[in-house]
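assembly run, all chains below
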Amino acid sequence: MADYFLVVLLDDSRMAKLEGSGLEKDIKYMFGGELRLIEVHVSDEIKNKLLNTFDTARTDSRNAITDVPVAFMRELFNQVVEKKSLGDEVVEAVLAKADEIKELAKKESEFLPVPELA
Amino acid sequence: MSRFSIERPLPHGGRLIERVVRDPERAKKMIKGCPTFDIKPTLHYETGVPVRNVYREIMSICYGFFSPVEGSMSQAEVERILKERRLLNEWIFPFPLVFDISKEDLKKLGVSSGDRLVLNLKEKPFAVLDIEEIWEISDTEELAHRTFGTPEDNPEVVKERFDKKHPGWVIYKSLNPMVLAGKYTIINEPIFRSPFDRFWYPPRKAREEFDKRGWRTVINHQTRNVPHVGHEFLMKNAAYTGDTEPCNGILVNAIIGVKRRGDYPDQAIVEGHEAVETGGYIKSDRHLTSICLWDMRYGNPLESLIHGIIRQNMGCTHHMFGRDHAAVGDYYDKWSTQILWTKGIPSFGFNAPPTDVPYGLQIRPQNMREFSYCPTCKEMAYSETCGHKREKLSGSFLRGMVAEGVQPPVIIMRPEVYKVIVKWWKHFNYPFCNEKYVINKEKELEVDLKDL
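ok done. output:
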């Protein structure tokens, strides 16, 4: 059974929110340590549920799940922080909000919230 | 001067075309009593979304970017281009450029050869078209296929038959059937809106600017993207070519035209490149950001020809070409531009590179591969030089990061460039071009006109 995962990118503001979560040891580094990320691994069943729920979602050659709505990725990070976990329950919690995320995704072609500059 | 020194090339065709009347009184006399026509955008043949505005071609022709082209092409000229990629005066040119109107509009206008037609833009007189011939495109789909090539006719580089997913093919497929051929003359110079105004360097002005800066050799960077650090390294390193010294200048020439959903806004593209300079990553006395109006045809090797023509006319000595140059989808071989400039593409009329044929180009190609980050070298490394496993920088990876509101690290995108993206994100409520942006842009265009 393949191991599927979602990549959560971490900028300074997200790093601050992760502080004290116990997840610091799971942070991975790319580009000479300049890019920080965590990987949320999911079971085959959750992966299938995710692909069925969001029609743009797909898996790439690394088994990363990509092309999910931005609202999904934002909520995924929120749930990681809230649950202090990278387990299946995180993605399950996000999927529980699928209807809300789908509504937000529809609006994503019109509006995406502007980030605060560090 | 060393015998190895490279001189600035003459414009393509030997002289710069400039068809702009700057004296309003003369302009008024020129249009007195002439019929008028409001320029309309070309609309997608199925969706009705704007895919092209001929005003951009008129601008690029009259200011000399497309020298030696002087106007909308005759039937014989279009035929010659489709067969041999040459104008009737022999100079190479890749694409048919026509002023097309519907049969109904032609009937209403009642014009014929020898008439002068005043072309209005935004309800103001903009240019005139001196009609030399009126002809009909018998089949726009056939024209579209012949413009870009087919796997059967151009097997060296065309891999898939073009279709409605290709935005350039759609432009030709969507043309109106009647063509008014003849020379254009701008009689009321448009005023560029901000921020485009400060990037407007038509060929004569570009050449004067190069003189002022003491730039003898200049390498061009083609762009339709906000720059990431991979682009920056491409520019810096490609500029090491030149002659007895690296190129004196790097010209960034952004193609400004109709947008596709998901592209970065034009405003962010030009200011993003400017930010590379203001941030000091490339010194301002070595770097210049500029624009050219053109609705991209995404014709990969053919597009590279028009890019070479534009930049030679602007005075560049060198031009960078990368993988999938000006391409969309997998219609062409990803290296077809580099194939054209190194050995030619016989089925497109080039038994040798376009620099090595009569009436060809003088600008020198600099065919480049890719830059990506090497964690061993701890630097951006060239794919053909570095022997380590590298971390690839892709535009889609970056776009996903931007869409999520995550600031890319400085090794991928300079903070000054990201700030520009956020600036225009605030302005348009969106970091990329969406349908609203595309439609509004084609209503507002890049220019305004004064009363004549």
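The longest strand of chain B covers residues 124-136.

Chain B has two domains: 24-191, 196-444.

not gonna interpret more than that til we talk
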